[in-house]
Design a protein that fits this description.
Shape: rod-shaped
CATH architecture of the largest domain: 2-Layer Sandwich
Structural class: alpha+beta
CATH class of the largest domain: Alpha Beta
Helix content: 40-55%
Number of domains: 2
Radius of gyration: 35 Å
CATH superfamily of the largest domain: Ribosomal protein S6/Translation elongation factor EF1B
Number of helices: 4
Strand order of the largest sheet: 1-2-4-3
C-alpha cells in the first residue's frame, strides 16, 4: 500500500525533473534558436519575393518606354563622363558658332547640390558632375550663338561663369566654366 502512494509521487518528481532538467532547456535553447532562424529566413524570403516582383514591374515599365525617348534620356544624362565625346561636341558647336576654342581643362569635381561650390560630399544623389574651364576667341554674336547651342544641346550642361576680356577689334577672349552631369554607376 505504501508503494501505491509513493510510486505516483516518485513518478511525478522524476517527470518534473526530466521536464525542467532536459525538455525545457532543449526546447528554449536549441529549438527556440531554430524557430527564430526560421522566422528570420521567412522574412528574408518574403523580402526576396517582394524585390523580385518590384524588379519585374520596373523591367516591364522600362520596356514600355519608347526606345527613342530612352535614347534621348541616355544622351541627356549619360552614365559616364565621356570627356572625349563632350570635348568634340563642344568644339564642333564652337566651330559652327564662329568661336575658336583654345583651351579646355577639367577644373574640379563639383558638388551637384544647388548653390554649393565645395568638393563633392557623400550623398544619395544619383548624379555627379564636373566643371570644365573653357577658353574661346570670337565675336559677341559668336558667343551668343554658342550659348544658344549649349542651351539646346541634347546633353545636360550648365554654364556657371563667363568672363569677357575686351578688345578694340571686336574679337573677344571668353573664359567660361561649364558644369557637366552624368549618372553615377
Amino acid at each position: 500500500m505504501i508503494n501505491d502512494r509513493i510510486l505516483p509521487w516518485f513518478a511525478l518528481i522524476v517527470a518534473t525533473g526530466i521536464f525542467f532538467g532536459y525538455v525545457r532547456p532543449t526546447w528554449s535553447d536549441t529549438i527556440g534558436k531554430i524557430n527564430k532562424t526560421i522566422a528570420s529566413d521567412d522574412k528574408a524570403l518574403a523580402a526576396a519575393h517582394d524585390y523580385d516582383a518590384r524588379r519585374n514591374t520596373l523591367a516591364k515599365a522600362r520596356n514600355d518606354i519608347d526606345p527613342e525617348n530612352l535614347k534621348r534620356l541616355e544622351t541627356f544624362l549619360p552614365d559616364s563622363v565621356d570627356n572625349v565625346g563632350l570635348v568634340l561636341d563642344l568644339n564642333a558647336l564652337a566651330a559652327r558658332s564662329g568661336l575658336s576654342i583654345s583651351n579646355i581643362d577639367v577644373t574640379n569635381a563639383a558638388d551637384t547640390r544647388p548653390g554649393s561650390s565645395a568638393a563633392p560630399a557623400k550623398n544619395t544623389d544619383p548624379t555627379s558632375s564636373i566643371d570644365l574651364s573653357l577658353s574661346a576667341v570670337g565675336t559677341y554674336a559668336s558667343l551668343q550663338s554658342f550659348l544658344v547651342g549649349v542651351e539646346k544641346s541634347a546633353r545636360l550642361l550648365d554654364v556657371r561663369d563667363i568672363t569677357v576680356k575686351g578688345s578694340d577689334t571686336g574679337v573677344y577672349t571668353f573664359l567660361m566654366k561649364i558644369r557637366i552631369f552624368w549618372l553615377r554607376s
